[in-house]
Design brief:
- This protein has 485 residues and is α+β, with helices and mostly antiparallel strands.
- It has two domains: 263 residues, D-Maltodextrin-Binding Protein, domain 2; 191 residues, Dipeptide-binding Protein, Domain 3 (Dipeptide-binding Protein, domain 3), CATH 3.10.105.
- The strands form six sheets. A seven-stranded mixed beta sheet has the order 9-10-11-2-12-21-14, with no helix packed on it.
- Strand 16, helix 8 and strand 17 form a beta-alpha-beta unit.
- The longest helix is centred in the C-terminal third of the chain and has 18 residues.
């Protein structure tokens, strides 16, 4: 992510565009009632517990955080500015003046501190508390024990100070995730563009929150969510699996609607321990053969990722031939709607080079993850299992491959790669970090723990006259600016 959108390395103070406060224009009282189809209704409206994309997106409409995802980065939301000091270890967020909950109670920095500790508490069992909050000083211990000092302080109502275990360049993006949202001490008040009007098993209705700091930008009077596509103003993206965890595409979305870029990658993992693919030359042979796949291969870095053109090497890859035939087994899940066709393409392409591929299909992603490990179950040589990044930096996908990564299906281990990763996560300057990440991509090209196959897009289908939909490749959409002509 380019710091031009965020903050200069080790800057003392940055005040971002879009600042406002209690002097916002008079909020609109009209607006349309817009109806949307979701792939499934939210399983929870608790920001700390939301873990599927529909829940995360609806929670994101009901609530606000310090920042908010917008396009290929974040913009200020409840925080109007933030400072980075002490070599990137301390981030100080300054809240807007006059923030209020939907029930008119004051919203303060203490509400953020309380929400973060609740998300970290063992009893909350927050998936994103584990995925996104562990770089905060003391967070790892608190998540296990529920006790100890955590580096989150509220010295006054409008200041939230965060101390990290080590510098993290993208904390301003992480705090845009719902798990970092503030929580009300009691009741169900919300902090975002909308508040909850009604909820049933088949329908969810949100209405404009007139206490939201930027309510003048909230155009719909109501948002109605169902799972039925009949009579709706739009069919929202069908993805359900959240970023930051093992992933497969939710639908093929081959026709209709508008294509949306994503940060997803479908990966062909090559198991490098206890299989014929422990031989690096054999892995190179598989790669060389798959260069002839219909549509070719993808790069490690999604094009929508800032810095992609800098990081992906432009040189032509050299391939080698294996000195012996290979017999391999590939596991995939039919929960990925394109997997059957892709697996067949893989088998026929490899067969042209004398590589015999046996296909093993399972019915669910959970079963595939169990088979993949790590370690992968005996007899598995390759696994079709993807990843979707949860913040805008290549580090997020490169972090699959360190020796101790819990998601390293290949069980590939290169200590020099791990040392570079240690540098990358602490490098606050974008261009310097991109240089490190370029070196990391070269090591992946040499070691081939996996082969990036493709990047399935998402889609949204809106009725004529409906406009204002905003999309971030992270997987979040924004509905507060939508209208119907």
């Amino acid at each position: 992510m380019a710091k031009a959108r965020r903050l200069a390395p080790l800057a003392c103070v940055l005040v971002l565009a879009g600042c406002g406060g209690s002097s916002a224009p008079e909020p609109p009282h009209g607006g349309a009632v817009l109806r949307f189809a979701l792939p499934l209704l939210p399983s929870t409206l608790d920001p700390a517990k939301a873990a599927d994309l529909p829940s995360l997106n609806v929670v994101h409409e009901l609530n606000a955080g310090l920042t908010r995802f917008s396009g290929r980065g974040v913009e200020p939301d409840l925080a109007e500015s933030w400072d980075v000091s002490n070599g990137g270890l301390v981030w100080t967020f300054h809240l807007r003046k006059g923030l209020r909950w939907s029930d008119d109670a004051p919203l303060t920095a203490e509400d953020f501190r309380r929400g973060w500790l609740r998300a970290l508490a063992p009893a909350t069992r927050s998936a994103y508390g584990r995925a996104e909050m562990q770089n905060i000083r003391g967070a790892r211990r608190y998540r296990v024990t529920g006790s100890g000092n955590v580096g989150v302080e509220a010295p006054d109502d409008r200041t939230l100070r965060v101390t990290l275990q080590h510098p993290v360049p993208w904390l301003d993006e992480q705090v845009a995730w719902p798990v970092f949202f503030p929580v009300r001490e009691s009741g169900t008040a919300t902090s975002g563009p909308f508040r909850l009007a009604s909820r049933s098993k088949v329908r969810l209705v949100l209405e404009r929150n007139f206490n939201y700091w930027n309510v003048a930008a909230v155009k719909p009077r109501q948002l109605v969510f169902t799972t039925s596509t009949g009579g709706v103003d739009g069919v929202l993206p069908r993805g359900a699996l959240p970023p930051g965890f093992p992933w497969v595409p939710a639908s093929e979305s081959a026709t209709g609607g508008r294509r949306l870029p994503t940060l997803s990658r479908r990966l062909l993992w090559l198991v490098t321990r206890g299989t014929p693919l422990a031989d690096a030359q054999a892995r190179q042979t598989v790669f060389g053969s798959l260069l002839r796949l219909p549509g070719g291969l993808a790069s490690w870095v999604p094009p929508a990722m800032p810095g992609a053109s800098t990081i992906v090497p432009r040189e032509t890859r050299e391939t080698v031939s294996s000195p012996r035939p290979l017999r391999l087994t590939l596991a995939y899940t039919n929960q990925d709607p394109g997997a059957e066709r892709l697996a067949s393409d893989l088998r026929s392409t490899l067969a042209a080079d004398g590589i015999d591929l046996t296909l093993k299909s399972v019915s669910t992603l959970a079963e595939l993850v169990r088979l993949a490990g790590p370690p992968a179950q005996p007899g598995l040589d390759m696994v079709l299992l993807g990843w979707s990044s949860e913040f805008f930096d290549e580090y997020n996908i490169l972090d699959l491959f360190p020796c101790a990564s819990a998601f390293n299906v290949a069980r590939w281990c290169d200590r020099s790669y791990d040392r570079l990763m240690h540098q990358a996560v602490r490098e606050l300057d974008d261009q310097a970090r991109y240089g490190i990440e370029r070196a990391l991509v070269r090591k992946l090209d040499e070691g081939l723990p996996a082969i990036p196959l493709d990047a399935p897009p998402e889609r949204v289908d809106l009725k004529p006259g409906v406009s204002g939909f905003r999309w971030s490749p992270i997987g979040f959409y924004e509905l507060m600016g939508m209208t119907r002509s």
